[in-house]
Amino acid sequence: EWGVTRLTFEYDSEPFGKERDAAIMKMAKEAGVEVVTENSHTLYDLDKIIELNGQKPPLTYKRFQAIISRMELPKKPVGSVTSQQMEGCRAEIQENHDETYGVPSLEELGFPTEGLGPAVWQGGETEALARLDKHLERKAWVANYERPRMNANSLLASPTGLSPYLRFGCLSCRLFYYRLWDLYKKVFDELLLDADFSVNAGSWMWLSCSAFFQQFFHCYCPVGFGRRTDPSGDYIRRYLPKLKGFPSRYIYEPWNAPESIQKAAKCIIGVDYPRPIVNHAETSRLNIERMKQIYQQLSRYRGLCLLASVPSCMEDLSNPVAEPSSSQAGSMSSAGPRPLPSGPASPKRKLGAAEEPPGEELSKRARVAGLPPSELPSKDV
């Protein structure tokens, strides 16, 4: 109908994109349409990195740096398209041009819009460039730029608010580079403004100690973490309005609030808002112990050098949370993971004194926990 002879689009390295694009290219080939793909969303060609690493993704940042050092430097960003460059383009604009070629509305895409408020985030390249320019105007910030101290509960974008624009291609990674130098993952894909397949998967492997990540002893306490990063609970009140009536003292553990405070907040725990699924202090310790035993087993039959001797939850050490009363404990599930049996298949009995971490490792644990080495809990907690 349109007489298309050539199709061009941005290469997508994510699994869904590869499957989708393969189907499109197959259809185009059958229709005699030339297909041109370009890779500009990332500084380096991800498939080329895997190819140079023996068809395997590099598992450490050091290895990644070694691979890209053998590749060509990223290309400099091209300039903006000018009207002079487009003078040779002549196309008759039809009356129904916007209707035929315009960006579809949310309703056309099948999303409900009733009661939908104005967008908190403005998208597009214009907004992305304005944000970048705004930050580059802060000379002191640029001159003293360092690894940002992220606040997970910040109501405003921190530190630059550019990640959604980089993720969706509104801001060129090259322009930025030259001017500035499975279930839980799905939840993040749905709710994060800057949800990115690869970053999200890698971050969850890191935090869950999966794949090539080895520090399994970090376990975030939802109460202690929230109190430390956002003591007043502003983040909770904005995004979890059912709890906004609770005072700051109980905003992160409303199940401990007296009945009178729950009534005043118009939120009865167990009725208007669910009780805790598990006892965090108990379940996290069971989880860490189980991870420890699994890593010890892996180190035996794979010959891997794994850190498998740190038994306790660093988050609980630095932010102890009071154990719930007997009545509250009864409302919590005790269906947490059980420790692996210490039978013949378990390496725990054979390791003995060898489990004690060396002095350097002990010092590292102490720094993480914020405690003197002598006050660290024993490995059999």
Automatic annotation (TrEMBL):
<dbReference type="GO" id="GO:0071949">
    <property type="term" value="F:FAD binding"/>
</dbReference>
<dbReference type="Pfam" id="PF03441">
    <property type="entry name" value="FAD_binding_7"/>
</dbReference>
<dbReference type="InterPro" id="IPR005101">
    <property type="entry name" value="Cryptochr/Photolyase_FAD-bd"/>
</dbReference>
<keyword id="KW-0274">FAD</keyword>
<feature type="compositionally biased region" description="Low complexity">
    <location>
        <begin position="325"/>
        <end position="336"/>
    </location>
</feature>
<dbReference type="GO" id="GO:0043153">
    <property type="term" value="P:entrainment of circadian clock by photoperiod"/>
</dbReference>
<dbReference type="InterPro" id="IPR006050">
    <property type="entry name" value="DNA_photolyase_N"/>
</dbReference>
<dbReference type="InterPro" id="IPR036155">
    <property type="entry name" value="Crypto/Photolyase_N_sf"/>
</dbReference>
<dbReference type="InterPro" id="IPR002081">
    <property type="entry name" value="Cryptochrome/DNA_photolyase_1"/>
</dbReference>
<dbReference type="GO" id="GO:0045892">
    <property type="term" value="P:negative regulation of DNA-templated transcription"/>
</dbReference>
<dbReference type="Pfam" id="PF00875">
    <property type="entry name" value="DNA_photolyase"/>
</dbReference>
<keyword id="KW-0285">Flavoprotein</keyword>
<feature type="region of interest" description="Disordered">
    <location>
        <begin position="319"/>
        <end position="381"/>
    </location>
</feature>
<protein>
    <recommendedName>
        <fullName>Photolyase/cryptochrome alpha/beta domain-containing protein</fullName>
    </recommendedName>
</protein>
<feature type="domain" description="Photolyase/cryptochrome alpha/beta">
    <location>
        <begin position="1"/>
        <end position="43"/>
    </location>
</feature>
<dbReference type="GO" id="GO:0032922">
    <property type="term" value="P:circadian regulation of gene expression"/>
</dbReference>
<comment type="similarity">
    <text>Belongs to the DNA photolyase class-1 family.</text>
</comment>
<dbReference type="GO" id="GO:0005634">
    <property type="term" value="C:nucleus"/>
</dbReference>
<dbReference type="GO" id="GO:0003677">
    <property type="term" value="F:DNA binding"/>
</dbReference>
<dbReference type="GO" id="GO:0005737">
    <property type="term" value="C:cytoplasm"/>
</dbReference>
<dbReference type="InterPro" id="IPR036134">
    <property type="entry name" value="Crypto/Photolyase_FAD-like_sf"/>
</dbReference>
<feature type="binding site">
    <location>
        <begin position="194"/>
        <end position="196"/>
    </location>
    <ligand>
        <name>FAD</name>
    </ligand>
</feature>
